[in-house]
Amino acid sequence: MAFQRPAYLASPTLPVVHLPRMGLARWLLLLLVCFVSCSHSDLAPKYRFLKQATDAPPVSYYDYIVVGGGTAGCPLAATLSQKFQVLLLERGDSPYGNKNITNLASFADTLADNSPTSASQRFVSEDGVINARARVLGGGSCLNAGFYTRASPDYVRKAGWDGQLVNQSYRWVEQLVAFQPPMLQWQSAVRDGLLEAGVTPYNGFTYDHIYGTKVGGTIFDRNGERHTAADLLEYADPQRLTVLLHATTARILWRTQEGSGRPKARGVLYRDARGRFRSAYLREGGELIVSAGAMGSPQLLMLSGVGPRAALEKLGIRVVVEQPMVGQGMSDNPMNAIFVPSPSPVEISLIQVVGITRLGSYIEAASGQLFASTSGGGGSPPPKNFGMFSPQTGQLSTVPPKQRTPEAINRAVRAMNSLDQGAFRGGFILEKIYGPLSTGHLELRSRNPDENPSVTFNYFKEPLDLRRCVEGIKVIEKVIDSKAFAPFRYPYISTEALLNMTVNFPVNLRPKHDNDSISLAQYCKDTVMTIWHYHGGCQVGRVVDKDYRVLGVDALRVIDGSTFNYSPGTNPQATVMMLGRYMGVKILNEGLQAKKKD
Ligand SMILES: Cc1cc2nc3c(=O)[nH]c(=O)nc-3n(C[C@H](O)[C@H](O)[C@H](O)COP(=O)(O)OP(=O)(O)OC[C@H]3O[C@@H](n4cnc5c(N)ncnc54)[C@H](O)[C@@H]3O)c2cc1C
Ligand SMILES: *[C@@H]1O[C@H](CO)[C@@H](O)[C@H](O)[C@H]1NC(C)=O
Ligand SMILES: *[C@@H]1O[C@H](CO)[C@@H](O)[C@H](O)[C@H]1NC(C)=O
Ligand SMILES: *[C@@H]1O[C@H](CO)[C@@H](O)[C@H](O)[C@H]1NC(C)=O
Ligand SMILES: *[C@@H]1O[C@H](CO)[C@@H](O)[C@H](O)[C@H]1NC(C)=O
Question: Gene3D superfamilies, alphabetically (predicted)?
Answer without folding.
Answer: 3.30.410.40, FAD/NAD(P)-binding domain (3.50.50.60)
